[in-house]
Amino acid sequence: MIGVGKAKQYANVLDKPLSRGRQEVSLSAFAFLFSELVQYNQTQVDNIAELERRLEDAGYAVGARVLELLCHREKGNRRETRLLGILSFIHSTVWKVLFGKVVYLITFCIWKDNLYQKRYVADSLEKGTEHEDEYMISEKELLVNHMGAFNCGAFVAGIVRGVLDSAGFPAVVTAHFVPIEGQQRPRTTILIKFAEEVLRREARLG
Amino acid sequence: MTLSRLLRCAGVSTAIHRFYPVSVGNQQFVFWIMASTACFVIVSRNDIPIYEAEVGSVLKKEEAAHLHQFILHAALDIVQDLAWTTSAILMLLHDSRNEDGIKSFFQDVHELYLKILLNPLYLPGSRITSSHFDTKVRALARKYL
């Protein structure tokens, strides 16, 4: 056979190299898989809250794995120990690998200090004004919300919670629709509320 | 408090030659060499061991189990004290002989562990039961030690 290169077949997945893989997956494949996931869960539950919880759990499993994999691949086995570090890791590296988007701006519009101010782009990470332990990632066009009438943002909230939890920053993460005037589609906001121990540890580490 | 002092206080006479607790992200890999037995344990959060392997001849059965537990917990305490002060994933606490071999051993085992973790049907934190994983870890142990 001329010119046929057969990829080496590995007997077991443990022998296969942990390669970078093909960077992109087709949107339709993902849409199909995700819609099946949602439909399957819809048959198992009675109400929307339960459905969102299940989507979150599915996302949690993804988040835990994504953290370890990305630490190994992108960051050369260094992990984040500080709160701001893990948040910027999420909204840059994780978002870039999962959704192909990069966040350009961090705005801290809080009562304490104004840290960075840059050109405003669609996606941003903000600190909530009411509580010190709340942060928000806000997205105009969340990938998973292209499909479905209700909030599939629960899946992404689950991913974020998985990453934070596996990194040692337990938090409650929820997804909300925030209506904005001038745009017909409400933008999705992911609200991250950290647990007490995280704040205490941050204070202790200075 | 170093491990050897701890052991002397507890009146344990076994000689610990080399001792390496290593923290890797969410799990801790602990490895020590005692007399002729080398023991390697992967511990998940909440200090539940998810994988253990012993290489070499095992001398005394009953005492060994308690000793393993003791060393394991002492190691984890040391690691946890230091865990939040450094951003490294791999921390070695030991006397500096044979560093490179151990470091490569841990890096390779970490890669194997990542491949296990990527399995969507594997619950993170549960015991690793794959015999293939076991074989590979032992092969790596023979290669690097």
Specify the overall morphology of chain A: globular
Amino- and carboxy-terminal Cα gap of chain A: 65 Å
User: What is the residue-averaged pLDDT of chain B?
Assistant: 68
Average of pLDDT of chain A: 71
The level 1 CATH classification of chain A is Alpha Beta
Number of domains of chain A: 1
CA gyration radius of chain A, whole angstroms: 19 Å
- The CATH architecture of chain B can be named as 2-Layer Sandwich
Segments of chain B where pLDDT lies below 50 for 5+ residues?
Answer: 10-18
Strand content of chain A: 5-15%
Protein name (chain B): Transport protein particle 20 kDa subunit-like isoform X2
InterPro entries (chain B): Longin-like_dom_sf, Sedlin
Pfam family, one (chain B): Sedlin_N
Pfam family, one (chain A): TRAPP
Structural commentary:
The complex is a heterodimer of chains A (206) and B (145). With 206 residues, chain A is an alpha+beta fold. Chain A is built from five helices and five strands. Chain A has helices at 27-44, 48-73, 83-99, 153-166, 196-205, and strands at 105-107, 124-127, 134-139, 171-178, 187-194. In chain A, strands 1-2-3-5-4 form a five-stranded mixed β-sheet. The longest helix of chain A has 26 residues, at 48-73. Chain B has 145 residues and is α+β, with helices and mostly antiparallel strands. Chain B has a single domain (3-144), classed as Beta-Lactamase. In chain B, 44% of the residues lie in helices and 21% in strands. A four-stranded antiparallel β-sheet of chain B has the order 1-2-3-4, sandwiched between helices. In chain B, a hairpin with a 5-residue loop joins strand 3 (37-43) and strand 4 (49-55). In chain B, helix 3 (99-117) packs antiparallel against helix 4 (131-144). Chain A binds chain B through residues 12-14, 16, 18, 61, 64-65, 67-69, 71-72, 77-81, 85, 166-168, 201, 205, and chain B through 25-26, 84-90, 107, 110-112, 114-120, 124, 130, 132-133, 136.
